[in-house]
Write a structure and sequence with these properties.
about 280 residues, about 0% strand
Length: about 280
């Protein structure tokens, strides 16, 4: 019973934090500091549950992107800011950069930190960076106008940002992707957020598949608590659906300031409350 309750709690934490710019991995590692560590497969699989929620929310947009490759659509001007064919290739480019960077990081032997301090500092510094980046993006929008277009530069840099966020838990994949887009020309918050969410779909599903294959090769699948993982996956998907719906409405009229402040307060609290080396 205790294990099931822990799985539910971790699923709720993942669902709420995966797409809010406050770092799901950081929150999961903090929670597991007290609830007990989970496998890489568990952590990434429940992230995939949250991604499933985005698939459901953006299903119409995803169908549009697929239909953008239909022959009768090829005559449309692909230079349009939201043309599905152009947009889909930019999503693919961002994912490709993330995939190559992620494999390189794995090959170099990277692993998640075992102490809370690095996560706390990533939360604090990330919050400061968010405040500065949004202020810069707003000034840029006031100067040159608000733009929703995703450029090739933005697509590639979003891929790089996702890799960096994976290396430094507490950074937040969604925050890194959103604010890189805002800084490099996509000054519309909704457009930057949509691209960050959509590129997360192949990113997290691929990461889950990679971990599953790695466990299979090393004979580690039998040791996984599949019932707990399944519970956490479902809870994560349901919670994320609600959280994303709320966030998409929230950013229409509000800045990301509240999330930046939350990050900094949580980071400072962790540094003060968790013993050094803990």
């Amino acid at each position: 019973m205790e294990e099931a309750l822990n799985a539910i709690l971790l699923g709720v934490i993942e669902g709420i934090t995966e797409f809010l710019p406050i770092s799901s991995t950081g929150h999961l590692l903090i929670a597991q500091h007290w609830l007990g560590a989970r496998s890489d497969l568990f952590n990434i699989a429940i992230q995939a549950g949250a991604i499933l929620a985005v698939v459901l929310i953006y299903q119409r947009r995803l169908r549009e992107l697929v239909q953008g490759f239909h022959p009768w659509r090829r005559s449309v001007d692909r230079s349009e800011p939201h043309h599905p064919h152009d947009y889909a290739f930019k999503l693919a480019a961002a994912f490709a950069v993330t995939a190559v960077g992620g494999l390189l990081v794995k090959a170099l032997g990277w692993s998640l930190p075992e102490t809370v301090a690095p996560i706390a500092w990533a939360l604090i510094l990330g919050g400061i960076w968010m405040l500065a980046a949004e202020r810069f993006a707003e000034r840029q929008a006031a100067r040159v106008g608000e733009h929703s277009r995703i450029t090739w530069t933005v697509a590639v840099l979003v891929g790089v940002a996702q890799v960096v966020a994976g290396v430094f838990p507490g950074t937040s994949r969604s925050a890194a992707a959103i604010f890189i887009a805002l800084l490099f020309g996509t000054t519309n918050r909704a457009a930057a957020t949509e691209f960050a969410f959509l590129v997360g779909i192949p990113t997290m599903f691929a990461a889950t598949a990679y971990e599953l294959l790695a466990l299979h090769r090393h004979g580690g699948i039998g040791g996984e608590d599949w019932s707990a993982l399944a519970v956490a996956f479902v809870v994560s998907a349901v919670t994320a659906f609600v959280a994303v719906k709320w966030l998409l409405h929230y950013i229409q009229h509000h800045r990301f300031t509240v999330f930046a402040i939350y990050r900094m307060v949580l980071g400072v609290a962790l540094l003060l409350l968790v013993p050094a080396g803990g």
